[in-house]
Structure formats: structure tokens, C-alpha cells
Amino acid sequence: MGPVTIAARRRSLFWRIHFWAALIASPFAFIAVSTGMLYIFTPQIEAALYGQLERVAPQEARLPLDAAVEAARKAAPAGFEVLAVTPPARAGDAVRVGFGPPRPGAGAHAGHGEAAAATAAPAARPGQGGERITVFVDPYRGQVLGSQRDQDRFSEWARRLHSRLLQGESLRWMIELAASWMLVMLLTGLYLWWPRPGQPALPRSGARGRAGWKQWHAFIGVLLGVLSLAMVLTGITWSKYAGENVRALRDWSGQASPQAPARLHSMPQGQQLSYQQAWDRTRALVPDAPPQLTPPRGPHGVWRAGSADRRHPASRFDLVLNAYDGQVLYRAGWDDQTAFGKATAVGIPFHRGELGVWNQLLLFVFAAGVLFSLVSGWVMFFQRRRAGALGLPKLLPGAWRAAPPVGVVIGIGMCALMPLLAWSAAAVIAIEAALHWRQRRA
Asked: Residues 253, 190, 33, CA angle at the centre, nearest 5°?
């Protein structure tokens, strides 16, 4: 058996696997990419939808942050407690105060007036029924601009549409299945495109019909390969089944992000820091990153602060302060992150288009390219398929035995990491075995 024969058998095998990957992934990938294109422009859409809540006319001086929180409490549902406060990052920003239903023991350990809030507003308010809400307050006038259930925001709706088609957890597996096979499609497509003698890497002008579709399908797929790899891998990190394996592997390898110790607490000594004092203390420690503040729960609670701006991953931080004197109990920033933590801190906001307009435009071009690859692949399939035939790419005899060892190892590793890929691959192998048995009997 000469090397050309082995190369031909391997190529037929990769064509076959590439076809199966496209067959399985295409419907779900088309939905994921289409809904993702909508999600890309979330900042602009939300600015148009919620500008009257989020933006204010700047004045000479802001009121203390506590005044805004107190105004928000009066507009919150009865009994709801403050979960987080996002002070204004810019002069025209509103204060955002997040509320949620009382947690176990909240009545006994409520801090900063949560217990009194139970009688501050009537029960029939937005957010009743165990849902979190955000109240927006003008930081200059102390005026409540409105409130909103977190689940009603466009970004939340678009996220649920993109990741689970608004169907809760029941359809989440479909997007994970698509991401798994898109990775297979990407790797096999790269192998098939890899230039061979007499085959140029760049598209040739003048090609028509299936040949024209084929060269542009391959070229655009490879051109977007790095982006595709980044998008698929970051999507897999927060998937349900493969994501659990990724996180387990991360923890096993010591790449988990640093976490504040669970039992950090404050010893009562006078009055707890006010919201304004906690904000001032946080800005003194981390002056270049807009914070989100989480108030202490009860006399032994602590102030917690973290970055409220996803556009600058290197500015992310976690801070825990003594509730009474502002002493730093825990602090972690970019330099304390693991390599995996840094990769996800950049990769996930990039996947969501949160790093700026350049990020959004790049993702839009990427999504358009993926849609072209999906559509052109099916155009070529129907151009090749003969009437009455399945249209499967021809598999040369001995193709499976010609699989390169490196490819086998990569395939086994991917299946071990991505359970849905393993189960669906087993189904594909069973179908292939049935087709082979039928062909031998014919």
C-alpha cells in the first residue's frame, strides 16, 4: 500500500466525518449563530430601550450613595433585601440597586435597614414572587427613575434565546451538541483544506458551480478558524455536561480562580461603614475599576466589592472589607489569576461581544461567515447528491483503518471531555456499521 493510497483513504474518512459533523451541527449551529448575531448588539439595544432608566442629566454634586439606596428601598417590594449596589461609573450614570427576596435568616441578620424595609412599600410591586429586581435612582436628586425585573431585560432574554431557545434547561443540550460537532467540523475542515500539490490554498477567480462554492466554503471556514475555535471553546466552558468536565479538569490541574475564604467575618465595633464610605474605601484601593458593592449581612458580615465593567478584563478584582473599619480581609486582581482564569476572563466577554464596538463588529463578520459556510456546505451537498441516493461522501475501503494515530487520540480525548459528542459519535459509528453491513450484503 503506497502513501498516496493511505492519503486517499484518510481523505475520504475525513470527508465522511466532516459530513456527519455538518449534518448533526448545522441545524443547531444555524440557530445559535442567528440568535448570537442578535445578542451581539445588546449594549446598543439596551441603551435605546432603557436609556430613561440608566442615564441621568449630570449636576454639580451627587448625594451620598446611602440616599440613593434608601430611595430605592422605598420603591422595592415589601421584605426584599439589598443584594448589590452599582454606583455610577460616569457622570451620567444612574445608581443601580439590586433587590431579592429574603434569604433564610435575613430577618435576624439584616443589615443597613433591611428589616425596616419590610414595611416600607406595599406588597403589590414588580418583583414579588421570588424574582430579583433592579431599582434605578438619580444620584443627584435621589429620585427613583423606575424598576425592572432582571429577567425582563433584553440581555437576559437574548441570552436565554441563544443558549436554550427560551426553554429553560430542557433544550440546553442542543447548543452543546452543536458546539461539540462544530469543533469536529472545524478540525476536519482544516485537514481537508490543507494545501496539497496542485491544490492552491487561495480561491481562484473564475471558478463556477460546485467548484466555486467549494473553494470559498473552505477558504472562509479556515480564515475564520481561530475565531471559530475561540467561540466554540468558550461556549463549551459554560455548557452543562462538557462544562462540568472542563471545570473538573481545571480544578484538578490547580487552575481554578482564587476565591475568598468562605468564613471571613467582621467583629462588631461601633457602626458599620455606610454605602458611601464603602464606596470611597473601594475607590481608594482600586481607583481604576468601577465597582459593584455587596453589603454585609448582619453584625458579623463583610463588605464585598467586584468589578462592574466587563470591557476591561485586566481590571477585574475581588475585594472583601471589614464592615466596620474597612480593613482589607481579602484582595485578588489580575496578577492573582491563573492562566485558565485569565483566558476565561478574556474569552467569555469576547464571546459575548462585551469588549467594545470592535469586538461586536468582529463577531458580526464571524457570524456572517459561519452562516455562509453552513449554507454553502448544504448547497454543495445537494449539487453532488444524485436523486434517490443518500448523498454520503464516498468512503474508500479500509478508510477507518487508515485513521492517523494522532487523530484517534484527539478524537478519544474530545469524546472524553464532551459526553454529548461521545454518545452521538457512538450513534454515528453504529449507523456506519449498519451501512457497511448492508453494502456487503448487496
From this structure: 80
Contact yes or no for 140/59 (Cβ under 8 A): yes
CATH code for the domain of 316: 3.10.450
Return d(Cα 155, Cα 45) in angstroms, integer.
9
Tell me: do 323 and 381 sit in the same domain: no
Q: Is 205 a domain residue? A: yes
Span 142-146, average pLDDT? 96
Question: What rounded mean pLDDT belongs to the chain?
Answer: 85
Selected residue with higher pLDDT from 377 and 355:
355
**pLDDT-based confidence at 440, cuts 50/70/90?**
confident
Range of the domain at 189: 3-40+160-253+355-441
Angle, to 10 degrees, between the axis of helix 225-237 and the axis of helix 172-193? 150
384 in Cβ contact with 391 (< 8 Å): yes
Phi, psi of 124 (to 5 degrees): -80, 80
State phi, psi for 327 to the nearest 5 degrees: -65, 140
The total number of structural domains in the chain stands at: 3
